[in-house]
Amino acid sequence: MTFKIVALPGDGIGPEIMSGTLDCLDALASQVDFDYTVDSYAMGGCAIDQYGTPLPDATLDACQRADAILLGAIGGPQWTNPQCRPEQGLLNLRKALNLYANIRPTRVTTDMAYLSPLKQSIVENTDLVIVRELTSGIYFGEPRYLKDDEARDSMTYTKEEIIRIAHVGFQLAQSRRQKLTSVDKENVLASSQLWRRTVNEVAEQYPDVTVEHLLVDACSMHLIKRPADFDVIITENLFGDILSDEASMLPGSLGLSPSASFSEGGPKLYEPIHGSAPDIAGQNKANPFGMLLSLAMCLRESAERDDMATIIETTVDTLIAKGITTADLGGQYGTTDIFKHFKAFIKGA
Question: At which positions is substrate bound (predicted)?
């Protein structure tokens, strides 16, 4: 059966990292017998310029019919209309596809630890996953308004929304080191009090998983002090947004971190967590590793091709260990150089 991918290159560095990554997929697929198609569509700022909306109907329809979605990056300083911003396209896509769980792994091998801004002894052997609730919380709560001298946002959660994200975290923990950390602000927020109580109820169904609760400020500290102690972290939307960016710097660069957004049975979306980096767009400076690793997640989770995912991950690890990296990781290689070395390595593997 043909595996159908929808590619959303997006804005800034998105098109260049997407193009090179799809070339690498083509090179890999020719060696391992993988039948697939890729169709590209506009989303984000480029879609606003072309169609007047960040999420055209044709793009949404294609995503709904796909087996998986690959996203490059969206956004940029030129799109300033608050009623029509590139980011609204991604938020609306998440809602339409019910992508309620965002999975962000962070891994620091011994060979990669020298790249971290922290001491190698602190970060080496870090292997954690942050599970972020993606479709509720303060980003979507009502009422919401901005007046001249007053503004309001609302952080809202239902018990059912917490239950479903908790199950994702517990099931992931079962497949890993069987430890789950739930992060909230239970000492202040009513929504966090419901969160903690609900997580404890769900925990009764997973007696093999050890559970700890941390306040978000404490967790942000411990991610720096003892990152290797964490296994699976679950948290709500805003906290997850912040903590996952913090965790992404443990390996040394935002450009190394992939992510996946899951629904219940529909297509999953895969994207690097970095932004569109318009300041370096088109200059052959973008770090493509996060995009390549997002492809690896796509192949493992949606295409059920663990063999292909492992090849990509091993190749990325090897290139980093050899110092074949972009400037953000202290290297002297351009984006196209990384792709060239990647394809050469898998050809010789």
Answer: 94, 104, 132, 217
